[in-house]
Design brief:
19 helices, mainly alpha, Leucine-rich Repeat Variant, 380 residues, 0% strand, elongated
Amino acid sequence: MSESKVASRKGTPLSKESPSLPTRFSFLPRPNSTETGNSLIQWIAILALLCLGWFVSTLWTTVGTPPDPAVSEETPSVQAEPKPPVTPSGIEEKTPSSLDTLSPEHRKISDSIFDLFQKCQWNEALDASTAHRVARARDDLESLLESLGPEHVAMLLGLLKEEPDFINRRFLLKALGKIGSEEALVGLIDHYHWSVEMDKESEVKHTIDSLALANTEFSLKVLREYSLAEDAVQHRYRFVEALTRHERAEDAVDIYSQLLRDPSHFRVRQRAAYGLKTTGGNQHSQNIETALAEEKNAYVRQSYLGALGGIRDVNSIPVVEKILLEDSDVSTRIAAVRALLNIDGSAAIQALMQARDRVDSSQRVQQEIITALQKLGYEG
Protein backbone atom coordinates (compact mmCIF):
# COMPACT_ATOMS: atom_id res chain seq x y z
CA MET A 1 0.00 0.00 0.00
CA SER A 2 1.23 3.32 -0.84
CA GLU A 3 2.23 5.77 1.85
CA SER A 4 -0.52 8.27 0.87
CA LYS A 5 -3.29 5.77 1.24
CA VAL A 6 -2.07 4.73 4.66
CA ALA A 7 -2.07 8.36 5.78
CA SER A 8 -5.60 9.07 4.59
CA ARG A 9 -6.97 6.02 6.41
CA LYS A 10 -5.48 7.03 9.72
CA GLY A 11 -6.82 10.64 9.30
CA THR A 12 -3.45 12.20 9.83
CA PRO A 13 -2.06 15.01 7.73
CA LEU A 14 0.54 14.22 5.24
CA SER A 15 2.65 17.14 6.36
CA LYS A 16 2.69 20.28 8.51
CA GLU A 17 1.98 22.31 5.41
CA SER A 18 -1.48 20.81 4.89
CA PRO A 19 -4.17 23.40 4.02
CA SER A 20 -6.24 24.66 7.03
CA LEU A 21 -10.02 25.10 7.28
CA PRO A 22 -11.53 28.10 5.55
CA THR A 23 -10.99 31.35 7.56
CA ARG A 24 -14.70 32.25 7.60
CA PHE A 25 -15.29 29.45 10.11
CA SER A 26 -12.31 30.13 12.33
CA PHE A 27 -14.24 32.35 14.87
CA LEU A 28 -16.79 29.65 15.80
CA PRO A 29 -16.33 28.22 19.27
CA ARG A 30 -14.95 24.88 19.48
CA PRO A 31 -16.70 22.42 21.70
CA ASN A 32 -14.81 21.06 24.63
CA SER A 33 -12.43 24.12 24.57
CA THR A 34 -11.53 25.64 28.01
CA GLU A 35 -10.49 28.99 26.51
CA THR A 36 -13.81 29.37 24.71
CA GLY A 37 -15.78 28.70 27.92
CA ASN A 38 -13.94 31.36 29.88
CA SER A 39 -14.61 33.91 27.16
CA LEU A 40 -18.33 33.17 27.24
CA ILE A 41 -18.48 33.67 31.02
CA GLN A 42 -16.77 37.06 30.67
CA TRP A 43 -19.33 38.20 28.10
CA ILE A 44 -22.20 37.13 30.34
CA ALA A 45 -20.68 38.99 33.31
CA ILE A 46 -20.28 42.17 31.27
CA LEU A 47 -23.89 42.01 30.11
CA ALA A 48 -25.06 41.42 33.67
CA LEU A 49 -23.13 44.47 34.95
CA LEU A 50 -24.57 46.62 32.17
CA CYS A 51 -28.11 45.52 33.05
CA LEU A 52 -27.51 46.17 36.73
CA GLY A 53 -26.16 49.65 36.00
CA TRP A 54 -29.17 50.47 33.83
CA PHE A 55 -31.55 49.28 36.54
CA VAL A 56 -29.85 51.31 39.28
CA SER A 57 -29.79 54.47 37.17
CA THR A 58 -33.48 54.06 36.33
CA LEU A 59 -34.36 53.54 39.99
CA TRP A 60 -32.30 56.63 41.07
CA THR A 61 -34.01 58.83 38.51
CA THR A 62 -37.47 57.69 39.62
CA VAL A 63 -36.88 58.25 43.34
CA GLY A 64 -34.99 61.55 42.89
CA THR A 65 -32.43 63.25 45.10
CA PRO A 66 -33.84 64.63 48.37
CA PRO A 67 -33.32 68.41 48.68
CA ASP A 68 -30.65 69.68 51.03
CA PRO A 69 -32.43 71.43 53.93
CA ALA A 70 -29.63 73.95 54.30
CA VAL A 71 -29.80 74.88 50.65
CA SER A 72 -33.60 75.00 50.76
CA GLU A 73 -33.61 77.46 53.60
CA GLU A 74 -30.96 79.71 52.12
CA THR A 75 -32.37 79.73 48.59
CA PRO A 76 -36.16 80.09 48.62
CA SER A 77 -37.95 79.22 45.44
CA VAL A 78 -39.74 82.59 45.39
CA GLN A 79 -37.88 85.74 46.33
CA ALA A 80 -39.64 88.18 48.63
CA GLU A 81 -40.60 91.46 47.08
CA PRO A 82 -38.56 94.41 48.37
CA LYS A 83 -40.30 96.66 50.88
CA PRO A 84 -41.66 99.83 49.37
CA PRO A 85 -39.98 103.11 50.32
CA VAL A 86 -41.05 104.81 53.55
CA THR A 87 -42.21 108.41 53.72
CA PRO A 88 -41.09 110.89 56.43
CA SER A 89 -43.84 109.65 58.78
CA GLY A 90 -43.11 105.97 58.18
CA ILE A 91 -46.00 105.40 55.76
CA GLU A 92 -45.29 103.18 52.76
CA GLU A 93 -45.69 104.87 49.41
CA LYS A 94 -48.28 102.37 48.25
CA THR A 95 -50.60 103.60 51.05
CA PRO A 96 -53.06 106.07 49.57
CA SER A 97 -52.16 109.64 50.50
CA SER A 98 -54.73 112.08 51.82
CA LEU A 99 -53.44 114.49 49.17
CA ASP A 100 -54.93 112.25 46.48
CA THR A 101 -58.48 113.01 47.59
CA LEU A 102 -58.27 116.75 48.15
CA SER A 103 -61.09 118.97 47.05
CA PRO A 104 -60.28 121.59 44.40
CA GLU A 105 -60.16 124.28 47.08
CA HIS A 106 -57.80 122.31 49.30
CA ARG A 107 -55.73 121.34 46.29
CA LYS A 108 -55.24 125.02 45.54
CA ILE A 109 -54.13 125.69 49.13
CA SER A 110 -51.78 122.71 49.02
CA ASP A 111 -50.20 123.99 45.83
CA SER A 112 -49.75 127.44 47.38
CA ILE A 113 -48.01 125.92 50.40
CA PHE A 114 -45.75 123.92 48.12
CA ASP A 115 -44.85 127.01 46.11
CA LEU A 116 -43.95 128.88 49.30
CA PHE A 117 -41.86 125.91 50.42
CA GLN A 118 -39.86 126.29 47.24
CA LYS A 119 -39.38 130.01 47.82
CA CYS A 120 -38.26 129.40 51.41
CA GLN A 121 -35.25 127.34 50.39
CA TRP A 122 -32.13 129.04 51.71
CA ASN A 123 -28.68 128.93 50.20
CA GLU A 124 -25.67 130.57 51.83
CA ALA A 125 -24.49 131.66 48.40
CA LEU A 126 -27.59 133.79 47.84
CA ASP A 127 -27.20 137.56 47.93
CA ALA A 128 -28.91 139.90 50.39
CA SER A 129 -31.86 140.67 48.12
CA THR A 130 -32.60 136.98 47.66
CA ALA A 131 -32.31 136.44 51.43
CA HIS A 132 -34.89 139.17 51.91
CA ARG A 133 -37.24 137.39 49.52
CA VAL A 134 -36.75 134.15 51.45
CA ALA A 135 -37.66 135.88 54.72
CA ARG A 136 -40.74 137.39 53.11
CA ALA A 137 -41.76 133.98 51.74
CA ARG A 138 -41.52 132.50 55.22
CA ASP A 139 -43.71 135.25 56.61
CA ASP A 140 -46.26 134.58 53.86
CA LEU A 141 -46.11 130.86 54.61
CA GLU A 142 -46.76 131.39 58.32
CA SER A 143 -49.66 133.72 57.54
CA LEU A 144 -51.21 131.16 55.21
CA LEU A 145 -50.83 128.33 57.72
CA GLU A 146 -52.29 130.41 60.55
CA SER A 147 -55.42 130.97 58.48
CA LEU A 148 -56.15 127.24 58.29
CA GLY A 149 -58.54 125.35 60.54
CA PRO A 150 -59.53 121.80 61.57
CA GLU A 151 -60.97 121.12 58.12
CA HIS A 152 -57.44 121.41 56.68
CA VAL A 153 -55.78 118.93 59.06
CA ALA A 154 -55.92 115.99 56.64
CA MET A 155 -54.22 118.10 53.99
CA LEU A 156 -51.51 119.26 56.42
CA LEU A 157 -50.85 115.71 57.60
CA GLY A 158 -50.54 114.60 54.00
CA LEU A 159 -48.00 117.35 53.35
CA LEU A 160 -46.14 116.43 56.54
CA LYS A 161 -45.78 112.82 55.42
CA GLU A 162 -44.46 113.73 51.99
CA GLU A 163 -42.36 116.84 52.65
CA PRO A 164 -38.63 115.90 52.58
CA ASP A 165 -37.26 119.17 54.00
CA PHE A 166 -37.14 119.24 57.81
CA ILE A 167 -37.37 123.05 57.97
CA ASN A 168 -40.60 123.00 56.00
CA ARG A 169 -41.94 120.21 58.20
CA ARG A 170 -41.46 122.47 61.23
CA PHE A 171 -43.87 124.99 59.74
CA LEU A 172 -46.42 122.20 59.35
CA LEU A 173 -45.86 120.91 62.90
CA LYS A 174 -46.44 124.37 64.33
CA ALA A 175 -49.59 124.83 62.25
CA LEU A 176 -51.03 121.49 63.42
CA GLY A 177 -50.29 122.38 67.05
CA LYS A 178 -52.04 125.73 66.75
CA ILE A 179 -55.11 124.14 65.17
CA GLY A 180 -55.14 121.78 68.14
CA SER A 181 -57.93 119.42 67.07
CA GLU A 182 -57.80 115.82 68.21
CA GLU A 183 -57.02 114.71 64.65
CA ALA A 184 -54.12 117.15 64.49
CA LEU A 185 -52.70 116.01 67.84
CA VAL A 186 -52.95 112.34 66.92
CA GLY A 187 -51.01 113.16 63.77
CA LEU A 188 -48.37 114.93 65.87
CA ILE A 189 -48.08 111.90 68.16
CA ASP A 190 -47.55 109.66 65.13
CA HIS A 191 -44.89 112.03 63.88
CA TYR A 192 -43.19 112.00 67.29
CA HIS A 193 -42.87 108.21 67.17
CA TRP A 194 -41.52 108.38 63.63
CA SER A 195 -38.96 111.01 64.69
CA VAL A 196 -37.83 108.81 67.59
CA GLU A 197 -37.52 105.78 65.32
CA MET A 198 -35.49 107.77 62.79
CA ASP A 199 -33.35 109.30 65.57
CA LYS A 200 -34.25 112.88 64.61
CA GLU A 201 -33.67 114.60 67.94
CA SER A 202 -34.34 118.12 66.69
CA GLU A 203 -37.62 117.06 65.10
CA VAL A 204 -38.64 115.33 68.34
CA LYS A 205 -38.21 118.66 70.13
CA HIS A 206 -40.29 120.62 67.63
CA THR A 207 -43.02 117.97 67.60
CA ILE A 208 -43.35 118.02 71.41
CA ASP A 209 -43.31 121.81 71.41
CA SER A 210 -46.17 121.75 68.90
CA LEU A 211 -48.19 119.49 71.20
CA ALA A 212 -48.00 122.22 73.86
CA LEU A 213 -49.30 124.85 71.43
CA ALA A 214 -52.72 123.22 71.35
CA ASN A 215 -53.63 124.30 74.90
CA THR A 216 -56.53 121.84 74.98
CA GLU A 217 -57.66 119.20 77.44
CA PHE A 218 -56.50 116.47 75.08
CA SER A 219 -53.04 117.97 74.62
CA LEU A 220 -52.66 118.32 78.40
CA LYS A 221 -53.62 114.67 78.82
CA VAL A 222 -51.09 113.59 76.19
CA LEU A 223 -48.25 115.59 77.76
CA ARG A 224 -49.06 114.30 81.25
CA GLU A 225 -49.08 110.68 80.11
CA TYR A 226 -45.87 110.95 78.12
CA SER A 227 -44.11 112.77 80.97
CA LEU A 228 -44.49 109.62 83.08
CA ALA A 229 -44.30 106.97 80.35
CA GLU A 230 -41.38 104.59 80.73
CA ASP A 231 -41.02 104.10 76.97
CA ALA A 232 -40.60 107.88 76.54
CA VAL A 233 -38.10 108.39 79.36
CA GLN A 234 -35.41 109.48 76.89
CA HIS A 235 -37.47 112.59 76.09
CA ARG A 236 -39.21 112.97 79.44
CA TYR A 237 -37.59 116.31 80.13
CA ARG A 238 -38.99 117.67 76.85
CA PHE A 239 -42.53 116.61 77.74
CA VAL A 240 -42.19 118.16 81.22
CA GLU A 241 -40.86 121.35 79.66
CA ALA A 242 -43.83 121.39 77.27
CA LEU A 243 -46.15 121.00 80.26
CA THR A 244 -44.67 124.09 81.90
CA ARG A 245 -45.52 126.12 78.77
CA HIS A 246 -49.06 124.79 78.49
CA GLU A 247 -51.91 127.20 79.10
CA ARG A 248 -53.03 124.91 81.92
CA ALA A 249 -49.57 124.24 83.35
CA GLU A 250 -50.88 124.59 86.90
CA ASP A 251 -52.94 121.43 86.36
CA ALA A 252 -49.71 119.45 86.12
CA VAL A 253 -48.25 120.54 89.46
CA ASP A 254 -48.58 116.98 90.73
CA ILE A 255 -46.37 115.82 87.85
CA TYR A 256 -43.69 118.37 88.75
CA SER A 257 -43.71 117.25 92.39
CA GLN A 258 -43.53 113.60 91.41
CA LEU A 259 -40.54 114.17 89.10
CA LEU A 260 -38.65 116.54 91.37
CA ARG A 261 -36.26 113.71 92.31
CA ASP A 262 -36.54 111.70 89.11
CA PRO A 263 -33.34 109.67 88.62
CA SER A 264 -33.58 109.29 84.83
CA HIS A 265 -31.86 112.58 83.94
CA PHE A 266 -30.92 115.81 85.70
CA ARG A 267 -32.81 117.82 83.09
CA VAL A 268 -36.07 116.20 84.20
CA ARG A 269 -35.49 117.50 87.73
CA GLN A 270 -34.61 120.94 86.39
CA ARG A 271 -37.82 121.16 84.36
CA ALA A 272 -39.88 119.89 87.28
CA ALA A 273 -38.35 122.57 89.51
CA TYR A 274 -39.20 125.22 86.93
CA GLY A 275 -42.79 123.97 86.84
CA LEU A 276 -43.07 124.41 90.60
CA LYS A 277 -41.41 127.82 90.35
CA THR A 278 -44.13 129.09 88.02
CA THR A 279 -47.18 127.22 89.34
CA GLY A 280 -46.29 125.92 92.82
CA GLY A 281 -47.29 127.28 96.20
CA ASN A 282 -46.10 127.28 99.78
CA GLN A 283 -47.32 123.71 100.15
CA HIS A 284 -44.53 122.60 97.80
CA SER A 285 -41.66 124.36 99.57
CA GLN A 286 -40.90 121.52 101.95
CA ASN A 287 -40.68 119.02 99.10
CA ILE A 288 -38.24 121.28 97.25
CA GLU A 289 -36.10 121.85 100.35
CA THR A 290 -35.84 118.09 100.92
CA ALA A 291 -34.84 117.52 97.31
CA LEU A 292 -32.30 120.37 97.58
CA ALA A 293 -30.64 118.72 100.58
CA GLU A 294 -30.28 115.43 98.67
CA GLU A 295 -29.24 116.81 95.28
CA LYS A 296 -25.57 116.70 94.28
CA ASN A 297 -25.79 118.25 90.81
CA ALA A 298 -25.00 121.96 91.04
CA TYR A 299 -27.23 122.88 88.09
CA VAL A 300 -30.22 121.16 89.63
CA ARG A 301 -29.54 122.75 93.02
CA GLN A 302 -29.61 126.15 91.34
CA SER A 303 -32.96 125.25 89.77
CA TYR A 304 -34.34 124.27 93.18
CA LEU A 305 -33.22 127.62 94.60
CA GLY A 306 -34.96 129.34 91.70
CA ALA A 307 -38.13 127.41 92.54
CA LEU A 308 -37.98 128.53 96.18
CA GLY A 309 -37.50 132.10 95.01
CA GLY A 310 -40.49 131.76 92.69
CA ILE A 311 -42.75 130.39 95.42
CA ARG A 312 -41.55 133.15 97.80
CA ASP A 313 -42.15 131.27 101.01
CA VAL A 314 -40.40 133.15 103.84
CA ASN A 315 -40.09 129.88 105.73
CA SER A 316 -37.49 128.80 103.16
CA ILE A 317 -35.13 131.69 103.97
CA PRO A 318 -33.00 129.75 106.52
CA VAL A 319 -32.37 126.98 103.99
CA VAL A 320 -31.43 129.47 101.28
CA GLU A 321 -29.23 131.51 103.63
CA LYS A 322 -27.29 128.42 104.69
CA ILE A 323 -26.47 127.64 101.07
CA LEU A 324 -25.41 131.25 100.48
CA LEU A 325 -22.97 131.06 103.37
CA GLU A 326 -21.69 127.51 103.04
CA ASP A 327 -21.98 126.17 99.48
CA SER A 328 -18.66 125.78 97.68
CA ASP A 329 -20.03 126.48 94.18
CA VAL A 330 -19.99 130.15 93.18
CA SER A 331 -22.94 129.88 90.78
CA THR A 332 -25.03 128.13 93.44
CA ARG A 333 -24.32 130.92 95.95
CA ILE A 334 -25.35 133.48 93.33
CA ALA A 335 -28.59 131.52 92.81
CA ALA A 336 -29.19 131.71 96.57
CA VAL A 337 -28.75 135.51 96.48
CA ARG A 338 -31.32 135.79 93.69
CA ALA A 339 -33.73 133.51 95.55
CA LEU A 340 -33.56 135.79 98.60
CA LEU A 341 -34.10 138.79 96.33
CA ASN A 342 -37.28 137.23 94.96
CA ILE A 343 -38.58 136.16 98.37
CA ASP A 344 -38.18 139.75 99.56
CA GLY A 345 -39.17 140.98 102.99
CA SER A 346 -37.24 141.99 106.06
CA ALA A 347 -36.00 138.45 106.76
CA ALA A 348 -34.52 138.21 103.28
CA ILE A 349 -32.83 141.61 103.66
CA GLN A 350 -31.38 140.54 106.99
CA ALA A 351 -29.92 137.37 105.48
CA LEU A 352 -28.34 139.35 102.63
CA MET A 353 -26.84 141.89 105.02
CA GLN A 354 -25.20 139.16 107.08
CA ALA A 355 -23.76 137.60 103.95
CA ARG A 356 -22.46 140.99 102.78
CA ASP A 357 -20.76 141.70 106.07
CA ARG A 358 -18.97 138.36 105.97
CA VAL A 359 -17.46 139.36 102.61
CA ASP A 360 -17.74 136.44 100.24
CA SER A 361 -14.52 134.97 98.88
CA SER A 362 -15.86 135.50 95.36
CA GLN A 363 -16.05 139.05 94.09
CA ARG A 364 -18.93 138.02 91.83
CA VAL A 365 -21.00 136.78 94.77
CA GLN A 366 -20.18 139.84 96.85
CA GLN A 367 -21.25 142.17 94.05
CA GLU A 368 -24.45 140.14 93.56
CA ILE A 369 -25.30 140.60 97.24
CA ILE A 370 -24.77 144.37 97.10
CA THR A 371 -26.87 144.65 93.94
CA ALA A 372 -29.69 142.63 95.53
CA LEU A 373 -29.76 144.86 98.59
CA GLN A 374 -29.93 147.94 96.38
CA LYS A 375 -32.88 146.48 94.47
CA LEU A 376 -34.62 145.83 97.78
CA GLY A 377 -34.14 149.51 98.69
CA TYR A 378 -31.41 149.04 101.26
CA GLU A 379 -28.44 151.34 100.76
CA GLY A 380 -26.69 150.87 104.08
